Structure formats: C-alpha cells, structure tokens
Amino acid sequence: MLYLPDERSMKSPHLTIPKSTRLRQSEFEAEAVPHMDLLYNFALRTTGDPDDARDLLQETFLKAYRFWDKYEKGTNIRAWLFRIMKNSYINRYRKETREPGMVDYEDVENFYDSIRADSTDTNDLQEKLFGNILGDEVTQALQSLPEDFRTVVILADIEGLSYEEIAEFLNCPIGTVRSRLHRGRKMLQTQLYDYARERGLISKD
Amino acid sequence: MVTCDNMMTLSGDSIDRSLPESSREDFHHHLSLCRPCRRSYELELVTHQTIRRTIRMVPTPLDVRRSVLDAVESELSPLELLHATLLTLLHGLARPAVLASGLAVVAFLFFFPQRIVERHNGQVQTAGIDILQVVADNLQRVRKGELQPSAVAENAAGVHAFFIHHGVSFPATVTLPGGFDSYGAVLTHHDNIPMAHIICTAGDDVMYVFEVLDRDMRTDADLCLTAKAREQLQHGRCYADTGIYGKQVVVWKEQETICAAASTMEMETLLKKLGIRNAKSGR
C-alpha cells in the first residue's frame, strides 16, 4: 500500500546517524568479542575472583569499544585487547589486590637443595609431589606469584599461547618470556611443594 | 653444544614443544648425563603438567558474557546520540531548508508523555490517549519547534535503523514513502510502551507520523483509537479524519504497527504521498 523506499536509498542510505556506529559495532562484534574467553580466563586467574574478573572483563571491552578507532586493523587483536586488560588491571585492581604470601624469588634459588634427592622419576614426582594437589591450591599458589611471572605462566600454561604471542602481548623479547616462565614455574614448584608437605603427601624430612 | 648454562632455555622449549629438532638429541643426551639438570627439567615439567591438569580454560559464563555485551550495547546509545546531534547540527547548518536543528531533546523524552496526558485528559473526555489527537497535536508542536527530532536521516531506512539501534523495531517505518528532504526520529515511552515519532520535511511541508505496535494497544493501556477508526482498521482499511483542530489525520495499520500521520499538506496530497487509496473518512 505504501511506497517503499527506492532501491538506491536502501543500498546507499547516507545516514546522518547510525551508519558509522553500526559499522563500528559490527566490526567490534566480529573482531573483538570472539576473544572474550581468552580474556575472561586471564582475568579470572589474575584477579582470582569471579566478580572481579567480570568487572575487569567489562571494563576491558568498554575501553576497547571506546577506543576502537585506535585499533590498527590487521594487527594482533588479541594482543591489543590483552594490553587494555593488563593496563586496566594495573590501574584499578593491583592497588587493591591482596598478594598473600608473595614469593621471594631469591628464596626459590635454593629450592632444589630442599627436595630429597631420591625421587627423580618424572612419573613418580608427579604422583608423589603434585598428583594430589587440588586446583584451589594451584590457584592460590599462582596468586602468590609476582605479577610479571604470574602473567606469563597463565598465558603459557593455562591459555596455551606461544612464546612469540606472549612476547607480543607483553611487548617484550622472547628471551624475557622464557626467563619469566622458567622462574615462574620454579616459584610455583616451591609453593606446591610446601602444600604437598603440609598435606602429608610427601615427607617433611 | 648443550651446557648446564643453557639448559634453562632448552628445558622450557622442550616442555612447551618449541625445542628445535636439531637440539633435541644434544638436550636429551645432556639430561642423561647431568642429574641436577634432569631434576630441574622434571620438576618444571611436573609443575607445567600440574597446572594444566588442575586449571583449565573455562568458557565465559553466559551471564558474564551477557552483562559485558549489554554494557557495550548501552555504551552505543549515548555515543550514537551525541554523534547524531553533532551531525544533525552540521547537517542543519549546511542545509537550512532541512531541519534547523538536530539537537537531541533528551528532556523531551522524559516529559513528552506526561504533557500529552495533561493536555488531553480534560479535553477528550477519556482516560486514554486518543492517537488521532496526539498526532494532530504533535504536528502543531513540530511546526512551533517544540518537537524536534533526536536524529535525522535522509530516508526512512535510516529512521528504522535508529529505532532498531535503540532496541525497538517499528517495521512499518521502512515503508514510509521516499521523496522527503529529511526524516527525523524521536523515540519515547509511555507506560513502558515505545512510541515512534517521525518528522518528514519536503520543502516547506511537514508530515508527522506516529507509530505504535498494535500489540501494545492493549485494553489497559492509555493509548486508544476512536471506535470508527478501530472499526476501519479491523476491516483492513485506512481512516482519515479531518476534524481535529482543523487538522487532517490519517490512520492505518501496516505490518502490525498502528500508524497515524498528519501533515501541512492537503489530505488528498497526503494520502497520495502515503500511497493510500479509498480511505474511509470520518467525523
């Protein structure tokens, strides 16, 4: 009954309002939103609290949307989003974060001397030392790591990122990633070994 | 040559499966000979395995995902509104014949429904809002500059997109005729019912269109149509009224949307513009 808009105007609307916003929204949904799981897991492991993870994730996506024009198309979107999340965390959460029992890296250096020398088989180690360690204990141990080391361990061991991508995320050399990962794991060993001893999984001698 | 000094690097590479093929043999050979390096490697491997065993990637919980997307979505509206306001102002400055201003009358969104109720409750002898009265009255407001669009597009599809973007769809909007210089949009809510107001200009002429979804015209809602108009719509016909403040209002139903229009144009011209033939006249 009513006239339909002519074909030309439907295809090329030249809108005063929504065209750029809709384009922006669809681009954002297509490129940024698929990486939500990666960011959520990082937020969850970094803050150690689901509510904080939700807030951090939301803040990250809001900032990413606001600054979407700053994102350089064709570059690593995951790295860009990650850096936004990392900065948000630093600005907002790190001040409030309780860092219980922060591990002193210097103490870790002597860790190997404290472990009895008789359990050298990997399977045996896994079974005796960490086989019964629970997720909560690993999470707690992870939380106690200094931030730089924790970040690399989360990205490598939980999220399964390559050294190259972690280096891009953190904007640092691959050698730094290797070093932090190695040290981070050693700190975790210390923590987990302590848990195992406290729970009587291994001898306190 | 693998030494204890570079075992840290190689151990990590081995665990993370990035040890080059060319180094593997030397690496394992060193492990078989050097007990401290072997222990260090095994502990790092066990730690890595323990982390992977106990902490797994989890999908983002649905409620978290929803809240994040909602937050981003809500971020759109003010931005869009601001963008629209600025563009509309520029548009108006560049084309004074179109709409003089594209300023978003945000306050209007809040006060509009109440003002209608105040005006009509006493005059129309009804507790509800007669849509025909609203349309006639709002055309007056448009002409006085009291009712200005929140956003302006150059065609009906743009107005439709504006409403979609604000979470409401008025399917009939896209079927509005072309040929106008501009299409302005205002979205208001009354009693939680979304109402679309579309202001079309063509030269000095103005056409105001009101749209509300038919399903929202429930019996307990404040919105109503006269019995004559309702009867015509039920029979799939349009209804033209020329007796409201001397203004001409036409009401029709399109894609489950009740539409009503008033214009500075003659009724015949308006009906022709809307593509309406054989409208039943009343009053």
- What's the structural domain tally of chain B? 2
Most extensive chain-chain interface: A-B, 70 and 71 residues
- Report strand % of chain A: under 5%
Question: For the report, how would you describe the main beta sheet of chain A?
Answer: none
Oligomer: heterodimer
State the end-to-end distance of chain B. 102 Å
How many DSSP helices of chain B?
Answer: 9
Q: Give the DSSP E fraction of chain B (strand runs of 2 or more residues).
A: 15-25%
Helix content of chain A: 55-70%
- The level of helicity of chain B is 40-55%
Topology diagram in text:
The complex is a heterodimer of chains A (205) and B (283).
Chain A: H1 7-11, H2 18-31, H3 36-47, H4 50-66, H5 77-93, H6 105-108, H7 111-114, H8 122-130, H9 135-144, H10 147-158, H11 163-170, H12 174-198
Helix pairs in contact in A: 3-4, 3-5, 4-5, 5-11, 9-12, 10-12, 11-12
Chain B: H1 7-15, H2 21-33, H3 35-54, H4 62-94, H5 106-123, E1 129-130, H6 131-144, E2 151-153, H7 156-165, E3 182-190, E4 193-202, E5 205-213, E6 223-224, H8 227-234, E7 239-244, E8 247-254, E9 257-263, H9 267-274, E10 280-282
Parallel strand pairs in B: 1-6, 7-10
Antiparallel strand pairs in B: 2-3, 3-4, 4-5, 5-9, 7-8, 8-9
Helix pairs in contact in B: 1-3, 2-3
